[in-house]
Structures are given as structure tokens and as C-alpha cells.
Amino acid sequence: MTSPEIIRPKAKQRPGDRVFSASALISGSLILAILAAVAGFLMLQGIPGMFADPESVSIYTEGENFVEFVVPLIFGTLWAAALALVMALPLAIGIALFISHYAPRRLAQGLGYIIDLLAAVPSVVFGLWGANVLAGAIQPSFVWLEENLGWIPLFAGPVSGTGRTMLTAAIVLAVMILPIITAISREVFLQTPPLYEEAALALGATRWEMIRTVVLPFGRPGVIAGAMLGLGRALGETMAVAMVLSGSGVIVFDLIGSVNPLTIAANVALRFPEAYGINVNVLIATGLILFAITLVVNSIARYIVNRRKDFSGAN
Fold first, then answer.
1. How far is 294 from 235, CA to CA, in rounded Å?
2. Is 1 exposed, middle or buried (0-12, 13-18, 19+ CB in 10 A)?
3. CA 218, CA 192: separation in Å to the nearest integer?
4. pLDDT score at 313
5. Neighbouring residues of 212: CB distance < 8 A, sequence distance ≥ 6
6. Cis preceding linkage at 158, omega within 30
7. Domains along the chain?
8. How much is the pLDDT for 91?
9. 49, 285 in Cβ contact below 8 A?
């Protein structure tokens, strides 16, 4: 004899619940629709520029085609963003750890507010600071690097007289992405279960050993996510790079010389006002490539976070 089936009454939804559920569904769908619309626009307008006759494109140099035009821009974009991330990530983790586990409460609150406020500074302000203040102040350091580390290809020189080099642009980008990585890392570190920390300290670990064995492994997915968000901003930054860097279509690893590569976003910003006809399509095609690069970077970050989420409660 089978037991009678238990009928569970359905919970009654209030009007507010239905409105919230529908709003969340519409918002999520709207994001996907906007993303698809942007991708569609870039493809429709950019693909003709990829296959345009090089002789009809005035922004190309003599004998240049689309591939030769865009490859140095891709290199400059990735090179500048990678340098910025390498400089900003360790500093951001250190600041986040200081705020979350070392600083007194009042000092931590003030520092957290300053970091959040730094993220709200417009990029054009960073560009003005980098071009008019940082470049001149750091130029003597470039001379020292060439004299003492010139045997390294990164500092081979000759040194730029203005200081507006790839290294200067990377420092500006590092300052711009620092608040993003710091804020996310700080919040993730604060979510570490206190029982885990107390257990490590009870077993005789020092504060640094507790941070190294408990806090950092717990917050690793969040740090990776913050780093990828910062990298995404560095890849797409326009005005700051355009104002600091006097670049051209070259592939150069030298960080302190007067000849520097240019990023895709800065190139579009500098050339678009005077572009016409098929030249606009070529610039949009470079934007399509930047869109694809950003999408790939975020997909890789999501893959890394998903692989490690079973070992951490950060997600």
C-alpha cells in the first residue's frame, strides 16, 4: 500500500514579490540585449573596415593593411594594461590587508573612504596629472634607469626628454585601477569567517601566518575578480592614455624611450574626430577587437573564479 501523496500548498505571492521578480528578470534580459546590440553594431560597422581596400583608407601608412595597422595597437593595449596590473595588484592587496586586519577602526574607515573617493576621480583629471606633473617629475628617474639598468631591454633608452612614455602611462593606469582592486579585495578579506582566523591564532600562528594561510586563500577568488575588473578598465581607458602618451604604430618594449606604442582606445579617440568614410569603419573595427579582448579577459577571469570557488566562501 502506497502512502498518500503529500500536497504542499504553494506560497502566496504578494504583488510586491511579483513586481520585484519581473523587474529583476527584465533588468537581466536588458543587459544581455544591450550587450548583443553593441556587438551587433560593432560587427556591422567594423567588418567592412577590416576588408576595405588599403588604398582607400587614409589613416594607413604607405603599404599598410588592416592587420599591420591593428597589431601594434593590440600590443600597446595589452602591454600598458599588463604593466598597470603588475604595479597595482600587490599594492592594492597590501592596502586592503592593512585596512581589514591591521589598521585601527577609525583609521581603516578613513582610508576606506579615501580609496572609494579616488575611484570617482574622472579619467581626464588623471590624464592632466600624468601629463603635466608626473611626466616631468619622473623623467630624471628614467635617466637613472638608463644609466644603471640600460642593459635590460625595458630600459635601453634613449630616454624621452618629456617623460611622457609607456611607463608613465602605465603608472597613471595603475593609480586609476588601484581603488577598484583595493575596494573589492578589502570587502572579500573582511568576509573571512572569524572562527577560521581565531582557530589559526589559537594553534599558535602569528598574525601574518594567519593571513597567509587563512585570509589570502579565502579571498583569492575575490582578488582575482577585482584584478580582472581593474584590468578591464585599463584595457578600455581612453583619455588618460591619450593625454599622457605620444604613441605611434610600433611594437617596442622600451618603457622610457620617446617612441612608444599606442592603445586601441586612445587611437580611436585621437583619430575619430577627423575620420571620414571608410576610415570610420576601420576605427570601429579596432573597437570590435578591443571588445573581443575584454570579453576574453573577463571569461578567463570567470573561469578561474569558478574553478576555485569550492575552496572558498567568497562567492
1. 7
2. exposed
3. 7
4. 43
5. none
6. yes
7. 16-311 (1.10.3720.10)
8. 92
9. yes
Position 45, amino acid: Q
Burial of 211 (0-12, 13-18, 19+ CB in 10 A): buried
Q: What's the CA angle centered on 236, arms 125 and 241, to 5 degrees?
A: 45
| C-alpha radius of gyration, the chain, whole number | 25
d(CA 96, CA 87): 15
Q: What is the pLDDT of residues 229-246, one digit of tens each?
A: 888 888 888 888 888 887
Contact in structure between 217 and 311 (CB atoms under 8 Å): yes
Task: State the pLDDT confidence band at 66, using cuts at 50, 70 and 90.
Answer: confident
Give CA–CA dist 282/289, Å, rounded.
Answer: 11
d(CA 139, CA 159): 8
Q: Calculate the alpha carbon distances from 218 to 103, 174, 178, 306 in Å.
A: 20, 25, 21, 14
Write out pLDDT tens, residues 280-290: 888 899 989 99
Using the predicted structure, report yes or no on whether residue 86 has a pLDDT greater than 90.
yes
Q: Answer whether 236's CB lies under 8 Å from 290's CB.
A: yes
* Percent above pLDDT 90 for the chain: 9
- Helices then strands, each counted (H, E), the chain: 12, 0
Q: Which grid coordinates belong to 201?
A: 591564532
pTM here is 0.84
Q: What is the distance between the alpha carbons of residues 239 and 234, in angstroms, rounded to a whole number? A: 11
pLDDT bracket for residue 9 (50, 70, 90): low
In degrees, to the nearest 5, what angle opens at C-alpha 256 toward C-alphas 255 and 257? Answer: 105
